[in-house]
Amino acid sequence: MKNCIGIINLDENENRMGELVVNRSLASVPIAARYRIIDFILSNMTNSGINCIGIFTKNKSRSLIDHLTNGRPWDLNRKKDGLKVFNFGNDEPVYDDVHNFAENIQFLTHSRREYVLLAPSYMICNIDYNEVLEYHKSTGKDITMVYKKVNNADEAFGDCGVLNFDDSGSVISVGENIGKSPKANINMEMYILKTELFINIVNECVSSGMYRKVKEYIHNNLNTLTASAYEFKGHLDCINSIKALYDSNVGFLNRKVNKEIFNDERPIYTKTKDEAPTHYADTSSVINSIIANGCRIEGTIENCIIGRRVYIGKNTKLKDCIIMQNSRIGDDAVLDNVIADKGSEIRSGETLIGSVMYPLVIKKKSSITK
Question: pTM, whole model, 2 decimals?
């Protein structure tokens, strides 16, 4: 896919992510112990041979920039092409992705690529875009959208788009999943189209003033644009709420899901850090958990995701928890269905109980004490 430019659009819906996105973008939220959400789409693109990628981000991007560095973990630290980051830097309500694309249109015009792949960060999967591009070419349509048939739309994928087809399989409209039916064709918000058409869409959006997002233009002009749909048959999570983040992390504890997402043929890359191996004390007990390097475990952990450099004290019991890096949990504590953001400190003897539907979130660098 060297003839395709990748655009990662971070103009994403963060309304249901709460405290986790107060000081960071959704794309830089930690996931699966040692990764960030953006690692998955970046790895999917580079594994598919895309070596020119632009990330169009909103504000609160310090954490994201720190994580991306120069793009080296994804082999994007290049003199030519490689990784570029474009910041919205504007809080005006009328300023959306269309304006950011328009102000940086030279990134597209100078790319010399025939095709554009537009995608968000919050769709977690492991996908080969070479197959999508070949499918797109075979259809002869203006645009190809990627979708996933799901049987749990009444429990997950809330607010996601839903594709509707005609008898020939062409996309005729895009609705919204409001959770009434378990079966749905979930729009993964991944679009392949020619670069020239993408530029024309951006220019039309700006000149008409009718659309603030490129995907809005596409969805509302399917009477003039021809659109095909590529069915993705692998595992998919959409991280657009705290509950979705919790469920996705817990899902990685399933061996089948873990093996599919983190497979050797298409690895998920991330920023590497030199850490000592995790130390497990004689008093520790670990059941069905993912634990990153640099930790010290002295308590009991079951069905948990533990980030780097986390300390778990003696006689402490954790179940169904997500503990992000640099957090410290004292002795004799009990945590159940808790998400503790980076740098959290939970003093000895604390009991914190959330639920599967409503995990208890501990704000970044918070200190919880009696």
Answer: 0.95
